[in-house]
Design goal:
Aldehyde Dehydrogenase, Chain A, domain 1; globular; about 45% helix; 2 domains; about 450 residues; alpha/beta
């Protein structure tokens, strides 16, 4: 049975109790921005410094919440999600004056005139993150949104309640509600928030939910940033270092229990190299997650809830029924919501796991005779958020780039392209629209206002 405190908390966060509060906060933030740009650069910097200090203050609670929600290992000194947020804050503090400067343009029609782009805040932004990284998928875009001078209404994710509670605490302590306010609650609260005539919506999640977010935003003509997902491929050729490939893919696929939007779903590899790559994958899986033949569950995250555990295990059952080979793993513990790292081969094209984003600790080997086979399969899946190319041959890399589309590409690596804030991060087509990180995030949540000043006679 639910405890009395949990029942009370659910009542507090019910839509009936939160509707007046939602309207009050929205009215407050809208009024704050009624006359344009109320938050100066120095004030934005002060807000970011307060945010930084508060994130670090609650680092231990963040780690514990992530363990409670997902079983994520707590052996990091500073939580990964806190670390990447602090990194983004430090970059914004160092560069915000430069980012906010007007960009002067040489006029085409009258060389004596003055033309420039002025960066205005969009106003009030609705920010909705995702449960797989319940802090950083809110806190890293929040840095850009604050740096650009906006106010923010946050919806935390109910799928990770412990993290939601800590995030709410951090936001409440770091910011006055006219700047940033966080709401907890179920999907009814999310639906109510999406009715607000906000100036911009920033959403991270699945393509399915992304469609509903975009549809809701259209009612108010709110602009949107959608950071979605997809089936991210790794494309390998004969020149690749298979030990390196396997090491990267094991890190990518099984970090956070495979619940990462940029992790590799399947590997397209020459048939002549498939057996060797499989052996390398198994070697690195055993090194990272096993003590001898015993799986050490404490080294990775569990599935976030029973719904997602059942979803991934249904893919495995379906693949087995259709004749797939379990080259490694497949073990499950329903009570602990744990799935052991799994490598599948010989998977029929009509298997569910070949069509759906896995979002769990399973990798699929897809051998090819001709790389065109990989391109044909990729074309059936929509444009992924990430793509990974392993090769020492420039012509192979260029051929893949010329025959594909994705949000981001990393060659002979995995996370480096995401970590480097000089590059935009975002999807395309079914994996999303818009981009952030560094100055791109600042621009994404700014209105780039064109200004043309005629010369005074």
């Amino acid at each position: 049975m639910e405890t009395e405190s949990l029942v009370n908390q659910k009542a507090i966060n019910s839509i009936e109790n939160l509707q007046p509060e939602i309207q009050r906060v929205f009215k407050l933030q809208k009024e704050f921005h009624r006359h344009g740009n109320p938050i100066g650069i120095e004030e934005r910097k002060a807000l970011l410094k307060s945010f930084r200090e508060t994130m670090l203050k609650y680092n231990a609670e963040v780690k514990q919440a992530l363990y409670d929600d997902m079983g994520r290992p707590t052996n990091e000194e500073t939580s990964f999600e806190v670390m990447v947020t602090v990194k983004d804050i430090d970059e914004a503090l160092e560069n915000i004056e430069e980012w906010a400067k007007p960009v002067h343009i040489e006029p085409v029609s009258n060389k004596q005139a003055k033309a420039y782009i002025h960066y205005d805040p969009k106003g009030v932004v609705l920010l909705m993150g995702a449960w797989n990284f319940p802090f950083s998928l809110v806190t890293t875009p929040l840095v850009a949104i604050i740096a650009a001078g906006n106010s923010v209404i946050i919806k935390t994710t109910e799928t990770t309640p412990a993290s939601s509670k800590v995030l709410k605490k951090i936001i409440s302590e770091a910011f006055d509600e006219k700047y940033v306010y966080a709401f907890e609650g179920n999907t009814d609260v999310t639906t109510e928030l999406q009715k607000l005539a906000v100036d911009h919506v920033f959403f991270t999640g699945s393509p399915r939910i992304g469609k509903t977010v975009m549809a809701a935003a259209s009612a108010n003509l709110s602009s949107v940033t959608l950071e979605l997902g997809g089936k991210n491929p790794a494309l390998v050729d004969e020149t690749a270092d298979l030990d390196l490939v396997a090491k990267h893919i094991v890190t990518s696929r099984f970090f956070n229990g495979g619940q990462t939007c940029l992790c590799i779903d399947y590997i397209c590899v020459p048939k002549s190299k498939a057996e060797e790559l499989t052996a390398q994958l198994i070697k690195h899986i055993k090194t990272e997650y096993y003590d001898g033949d015993k799986f050490v569950s404490a080294r990775t995250s569990r599935m976030v809830n029973k719904k997602n555990f059942d979803r991934v295990t249904s893919y495995l059952y379906n693949a087995r029924e259709l004749g797939a080979t379990f080259s490694f793993g497949g073990g499950q513990d329903a009570e602990k919501l744990m799935i052991e790292p799994t490598v599948l081969s010989d998977v029929p094209a009509d298997a569910l796991i070949m069509k759906e984003e896995i979002f769990g600790p399973v990798i699929v080997i897809c051998p090819y005779d001709d790389i065109q086979e990989a391109y044909n399969y990729m074309d059936t899946l929509g444009k992924p958020l990430g793509m990974y190319i392993y090769s020492t041959a420039d012509d192979f890399v260029q051929d893949v780039l010329n025959h594909s589309s994705s949000g981001i590409v990393c060659v002979n690596g995995w996370l480096e392209g995401w970590m480097d804030s000089s590059l935009p991060f975002g999807g395309v087509g079914t994996s999303g629209m818009g981009a952030y990180h560094g100055i791109r995030g600042f621009k994404e949540v700014s209105h780039q206002r064109a200004v043309y000043e005629n010369p005074v006679a």
